[in-house]
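> forwarded from #structure-qc
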């Protein structure tokens, strides 16, 4: 039977929408409560919607009863501080699962490549229902920072690099891509990340935002890419040896960040 998917994502697996004009939006993300959670890079999260409306980020399948990443419950204290951010997440009219603001500290390209990971949003999702994707709404103006997508974690030839201007809106099938952000700023980057269920509502939102499936990818020097590849393998081997010394079989990286 398969899943209901968004046609705009069929070709490349991601789309970039028109940028939102944030000039009149309050900086609500600065008032939120942040907590630590495993992710790529040095990060904290401010959850707005979670499994049961609690201040936590865990996958919905890790609760009782377990469910897929749909039907998130808004966290009253958080959305009271950030009604505009809640509205941004609700704009498509699609089902919302987890919704949170990420705070990412500056990092390096090599850090981002090492931290590439795939999400597991559709665990327990049932065929015939909508496929879950993720939307990024960049809150700070990080024009030099890049969202990095790879269809093959170890192959830089599959890499796409998308700039993160203030108001950037990017929707990605994050189970299809290894992804992370290279944040080249000097202050933290903030972005609203929402799990949306594919369907006619999300399709209409993408169409209204002039979703572009083939945006320009930012070029990087070949030597920088090669150095990051070498560092990726060095860090993986270093981590493997550290775990082996403790008698632990290393977990796949993709299982660490969901």
């Amino acid at each position: 039977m398969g899943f209901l998917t968004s046609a705009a994502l069929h070709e490349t697996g991601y789309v970039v929408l028109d940028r939102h004009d944030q000039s009149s939006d309050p900086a609500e993300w600065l008032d939120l409560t942040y907590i630590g959670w495993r992710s790529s890079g040095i990060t904290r999260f401010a959850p707005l919607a979670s499994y049961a409306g609690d201040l936590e980020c865990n996958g919905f399948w890790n609760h009782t009863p377990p469910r897929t990443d749909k039907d998130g419950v808004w966290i009253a204290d958080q959305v009271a501080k950030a009604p505009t951010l809640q509205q941004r997440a609700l704009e498509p009219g699609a089902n919302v699962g987890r919704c949170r603001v990420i705070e990412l500290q500056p990092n390096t390209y090599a850090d981002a490549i090492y931290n590439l990971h795939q999400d597991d949003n559709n665990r327990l999702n049932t065929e015939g229902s909508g496929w879950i994707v993720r939307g990024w709404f960049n809150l700070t103006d990080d024009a030099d920072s890049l969202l990095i997508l790879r269809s093959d974690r170890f192959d830089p030839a599959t890499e796409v690099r998308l700039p993160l201007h203030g108001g950037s809106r990017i929707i990605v099938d994050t189970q299809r891509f290894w992804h992370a952000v290279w944040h080249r700023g000097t202050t933290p980057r903030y972005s609203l990340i929402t799990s949306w269920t594919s369907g006619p509502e999300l399709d209409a939102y993408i169409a209204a935002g002039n979703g572009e499936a083939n945006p320009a990818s930012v070029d990087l020097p070949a030597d920088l890419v090669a150095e990051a590849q070498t560092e990726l393998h060095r860090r993986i081997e270093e981590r493997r040896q550290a775990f082996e010394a403790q008698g632990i079989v290393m977990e796949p990286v993709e299982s660490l960040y969901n």
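QC bot note: The chain has a mean pLDDT of 94. The CA atoms of residues 72 and 133 lie 14 Å apart.
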